[in-house]
Design a protein that fits this description.
Largest sheet: 7 strands, antiparallel
Number of domains: 1
Shape: globular
Structural class: alpha+beta
Number of strands: 7
Mean pLDDT: 89
Strand order of the largest sheet: 2-1-5-6-7-4-3
Helix content: 25-40%
Number of helices: 3
């Protein structure tokens, strides 16, 4: 199974100190060979990626528990906020995750997970896996 076929992956982004921060994210296959997910601009992930686009990804559960035996893949991330690949990842996510999309959006608002100025899903992160 490809990393793009997983429901959730553990995304590791890196602080300026080089320390890795692991976040579970939904993942979708992108037509240009990359994988992608959406997030809010201004989130910790996007701040770290703006400083250092290197990432690692690994298959995990929704809670972030790594899947035994799954490989750690390295890659480079790019953030986009509009365009055909943004639309593609957004549409693929809605197809793949269905009713969970609006539920997580509402839950995020109710639980105060979105800070002022952040908009749910306004940024798509595209990751090219190293070969």
């Amino acid at each position: 199974m490809s990393i793009a076929d997983e429901k959730t992956i553990a995304l590791t982004t890196f602080r300026r100190t080089g320390e890795g921060v692991v976040t579970p994210v939904w993942v979708n296959r992108v037509s240009d060979g990359r994988i992608g997910f959406w997030t809010a601009m201004g989130s910790g992930k996007t701040k770290r990626l703006a400083n250092d686009p290197r990432v690692t990804v690994q298959a995990c559960s929704a809670s972030g528990k790594l899947k035994d035996g799954s490989p750690v893949l390295t890659g480079t991330a790019e953030m986009v906020q509009a365009g055909p690949l943004f639309d593609e990842v957004t549409a693929a996510g809605k197809r793949k995750y269905g009713a969970m999309v609006p539920i997580t959006k509402v839950m995020g608002k109710l639980m105060g997970q979105r800070k002022a100025g952040q908009a749910y899903g306004d940024t798509v992160v595209l990751i090219r896996i190293d070969e």
